[in-house]
Each structure stands twice: as structure tokens, then as C-alpha cells.
Amino acid sequence: MWHRLRSALRSLRGSPTAAPHGGGGRPPAAMERAVVRCVPSEPKLSLRFVLPDGSARHMQRDQEEPLGRALARIATNAAKGHGKAGKKSKKARAEGGAEGEAAVPAVPAVRLFSRDGAAVAEEVPNAAAWQDGAVLHIGDARYRVERNPPALTELRLPRSLLAGFPVCPKVSAEFAAPQHCLFRWFREQRPAGGGEAAGEGWVETAATERVFTPSNALVGLRLKLRCTPGDGEQRYGPALEVESSGPVEAGPGACTFDARHLYTKKVCGHGFVRAVSYNILADTYAQTEFSRTVLYPYCAPYALEIDYRQNLLKKELAGYSADLICLQEVDKSVFVDSLAPALDAFGLEGLFKIKEKQHEGLATFYRRDKFSLLSQHDIAFSEALLSEPLHKELCEQLAKYPLVQEKVLQRSSVLQVSVLQSATDPSRKLCVANTHLYWHPKGGNIRLIQIAVAMSHIQHVACDLYPRIPVIFCGDFNSTPSSGAYSFISSGGIAEDHEDWVSNGEEERCSMSLSHPFKLLSACGEPAYTNYVGGFHGCLDYIFIDRNALEVEQVIPLPSHEEITTHQALPSVSHPSDHIALICDLKWK
Predict the structure, then answer these.
(1) pLDDT digits over 282-325, tens only?
(2) 197: pLDDT confidence band, cut at 50, 70 and 90?
(3) Domains and CATH numbers, the chain
(4) Which residues form the catalytic set?
(5) pTM: predicted TM-score of the whole model, two decimal places
(6) Where is the Endonuclease/exonuclease/phosphatase domain (predicted)?
(7) Cβ distance 380 to 412 under 8 Å?
(8) Nearest CA-CA partner of 552 in 581, 587, 589
């Protein structure tokens, strides 16, 4: 650890600074760094510097402690360092036959001067004393104080790299932001003879963006990224480097979404909203023996691997230039390590709601320069039904049907609700809902209850908390256009004698008359299918919009049947999920 710390501290030794120096007299042009990390929420601050003898010091001090105590501790440390150096010198003289004793090291004078050159009083608390640009004197040595300088805490490249597909690093930083960091991309050097194997050394590419798309010329070569953290105020911290674990591999060629990208090259104007809803197939379901042998036996095993599918997903989603993206079946690790960092690089902020039992959940992304997040109102259907007064009447009705009640309460389905505000017109707000309903073909009655809970909750948000704001309700509803669930959402009500109340037989009959106040329209209509697997195809996914406030400008055409069935069904080497993304451009009325 210490050699890395020393390396980091030495890496910027002597770096020029425009900040004024304190402490009388003109200091040397090159000064050491004293790095201070001081965060209001933490009781201690940390101080890192390298003493003249080369030994690194890392101190933790109470933020409220008077500066004088910290300076005294630094003086003691410095004296110990001199003492150790003196012992080494004495030993060397003894071995060389020299006479005399080493001088006892004196405790050096340690003082701190502010940016304007005034000495900082010793009674000032540490938190106020150690300001950026101050100068620390330890004897004759001078240190420029850098308070909370930009620093990288994580830099990671994806495990799988495909030619023609964007490489999006995961960049985590403190006192810095990825959009202000500097990026330099390198490729492995090919051997001089032009052989296939990569040689030693790296060649810098012309790429300086956060996202890098390797060309076919880089197939077989590994990549390296050097990132320098920045804070947008011309302050930069020590760079980190990361090398890819494997080489760039050849991509799959044409993908099902390539033609769709022709319609979505640019982000829509400010009066429009491009919305996407997409079940991306959770890795937790794709990577089972059942999936490989029964559900998707036609799909090449490597194309079911999450690393491969993530390459396709990131290129597909980035190419839609969307303002809102609602995803279902998102593994938590995929959201944190892959999708959120990648879509962040394309200007989208992500929110995640997990289904506790499944380790996957829902993700909603919104374009930062078009929307800001006002509030989140996520729920788990079963918990909300039992605990929220809003659903008391429905809960009492459901109690009359204990078999159905038990099944409803066993489900881990969730609803993600986000209230967004337009960046250009604060009077325009949106209630964006995202869900994934119970999957079983005979679970129509369960889905009706889930929708009843969802619509009541959305009504509470979009009518009570934020009166009369438009609703966009996306998701995998596991319901075809002929189902009670679809009818309930689009018509505003469901009769107690609807056939879906007996979807799992008479013994699980559950008859209720339910309604909601919204006028919702399926923005993408009723496609022939949004889910296409070996044993089933049908329309299960929808983007419902508030027809009173929004209208459809255009629906991005789905891939052709020929494209979908090129590799028999979905997923495939050219399509990362068993569902198809819905995309539409909406216009405010």
C-alpha cells in the first residue's frame, strides 16, 4: 500500500500551481503535495504527505481539533524520520571507521500559512485550517495543501470487447466527475513481423473520449485506458491505468436494432420525449440449464453469456438516443457495473428498484439535460397492499378470496414510479411508472390485482401529490391485448364477471369490479409480438400514455419478422433479449 501511496504522491511532485504561496519569501517553483481529505459527514480528516527523507505519512485527525495539535504531531513524525535517518548515518560511519557521534535531530518548526501568506492561528479547528492552496512548512520543506483533490476510486473495463461495439469503462471518483476526467486509450502493439500475436508495449490511439469503439483492425489486441480525474474547475488528480483482461473480438455483424437506429440518430427536440420500454432478459434467468436446453436451445451458448449480451445491449440502448428508458429484468450487478456507467456516458441518469427475492428488478433512465428528478415513489405490490391505507378497500375485498390473496402476497413484483420535471419548462412534469407483472399464463387474476394496486398508487402520485401531471406507464405486463389486464388499463375499468377473474379455475375465482381515472393509450399500438421465443410469441410489453396530455409523434418500427427469425427466435447472436424494445416519440399536447 505504501509504495502505491508514495508513487501517487510523488507523481505530482513539483507540479506547477497558480495558487499563491504563503509563509514569507518566494518558495521554490516545485513544491511537495500535502493532500487533505475533509468531508463534512465524517468526524476525521486525513492528511497525506511525504517527508524529505522519502517516508510517507498518512494521518487521521479530528476535524474539530485545534490546528496546533495536528502541527505538533507532524513535528514529532518529522523528528522520528530524521532520527531514523541519523541512526542509518551513524551505522554507516561505524562500518566505515569514521569517528564521532551523529547529531541528535532537532524537532523541526512546523507551521501552516493561508493562501494570502498569513500564518493560520493554532486554535483554528482543523476543518477550517487546512484550506486548498495553503502552504505547510516542515523545517525548510514546503508543501502545497490540496484539499479534496479529484481522485479515482475505481476504474474498470468490461470483460468482453467486441469490434464495432462501444467500450464503456466504469469510472468511480471522489471530488471529481467522469464528464470532467481526461481519457487516453491505447492498444497493444503488433509484432514487427506483422504476425497475429500481440507484442510488448502500447500504442496510443487518437481517442480521447470516455467511450471508445474499437475497429475491426484492433481484433486480437488488448486495450489500455489511462484516466486522469478532474472536477471541472481545472483541478486534476493522479491518473490511473487499467488494461483489458482479454483482446478485442470480432462482432456479430448486422444486429436486429441497426435499422432502428436510422430513425433515432439524434435526440428529439425539447417539445418531445422519446420513450423506450424493454425487458432485457436477466442473467439470472438466461444462465440456467433450463434456459439453455429448454427455453432457448436454438441460441448459441456464448450468445447467452451476460458479457456478450451487454455489448449488444449497450450499443442498442445508446443508439436509441432516448429521453426515458424503462427496463425490466435488470440484474443488480448489471445495473451497477455495466448499464448505469455506460448510459451515464451517453447523458442518462439511472434509478433502480430491486425485487428482493429475485436479485433483479426495474431500471428507469432519464436524460439529464432534459429532466431532473423531483421524487421517487417505488413500491412492492404485496407490501403496499398490506400496509398502505390507500389500498385498504381492495385489501378487504381480496381477503374474501384467501387462495388468491395468498398468491398475490407471495409475489415479489414491484412498481417503480419517478416524478420528473422538464429542464426547460418547470411547469411540465411527468409521472413515469415502470413495472413487470406476474408471468404465469394462468395468472390473469393476479395481474388484475397488481394493476389495481399500481393504478391506485399512480393516482396518488399523479393526482394527489402532483395534481394533474401526465402519466407514462411502461413495462412487461405479461398480458396480451385480449387480456383483462390490457382492457383494465386502456378502458379504465374491469367488470366483476370478466373471464380473467377465473383464469386459474373456479376455485380461484376472484370477482371484483375495479376502475381507475386515467385515459391511457398504448403508444406503440398492439404489435404482433414483443416477445418471440421458440414456444411462444405475443405482445406483452406496452408504453401507456396519458392521452389527455401526450400524443404520439412517431413509433419506431420493430425489426422485421425476417430479422427476428434469422436465427430461429430470440435471443440470438444478433439480439440480446427474448423481448423486443418498444420505442416511440411523444409530443406534449
Answers:
(1) 999 999 999 999 999 999 999 999 999 999 999 999 999 999 99
(2) low
(3) 32-76+108-147 (3.10.20), 151-192+199-243 (2.60.40.2700), 257-588 (3.60.10.10)
(4) 476
(5) 0.88
(6) 277-579
(7) yes
(8) 587
